[in-house]
Amino acid sequence: MQIRGDAIWGLRAFLAVLAVLMVVLQGCATSPYTADNKARSDALLDQQLAAVKPASSADAPPRLFILSAALNDQSKAFRGDVDGFSDKLAALQKNAVSIRLSNPVIGQTADLPFATWENLGRAVRQMASAMRPTDKAVVMLTTHGNVNALSIHAGGQPYPDLSGQGLQRLLIPLERFEHGVVLSACFSGSFIPALRHDTRWIMTAASADRPSFGCQFSGTQTYFMQALLGQPLPADKTLAQWYEQAKKTVTERERREKLSPSSDPQFSPAKKLSEGVTIGAALGF
Known about the structure:
With about 280 residues, the chain is α/β, with parallel strands linked by helices.
């Protein structure tokens, strides 16, 4: 019996080590900074950025540049946000140019460039270099969050968070153009003070001191993004009305599901634009 017991404990120890090894290997398999993965990601990003170029003529119609990024590999909902947001806005603006970044969850196909600081910066700079004064842009980031911190998590491991000040620096190239920032993350309202700008409107899934919901691993989209994208978006609806309807939908859902405290989504209009600016004007359609 003693030999059998030792064998069982040995097997358990082996399985425990194997489990840890599998997690490590899976993390390495999707790490954005291994040579092979970085090369693959760079090639995917190069393909997308090749379509982000100056207008073909001076009288070309206005365009909408969309950058959407899932910064965290701990929920399928974040990739759902990226695809849903890009698809919805591209369907509204026929001249839209879309860049998508995503840190895939374990087992999810790594078919998009990684959502890293470096790739966000490359995408923003390329967008700004291709834009004209009549063009618009919108940046949507979705992830887990904390006060003044958007989590960047890839390959099963964390990287330095993106702060409000860090995001502000990343977005400087877009400040010459009218653009929006949409953040779907807990405590994302804490980013508004750092991001306020004359040309930038901002929507966040939560206030500065509240969590948001819908970011469980098996989710399809976060609650805030579902509420934003699940409503009709006629060109004459204002940004404020878009936000207010999303906030109402989210608040009612949280109440039904007895989630407390309510996330309390936030909206900050651009300083140079009227609070009554329409979605059509803001997104160029």
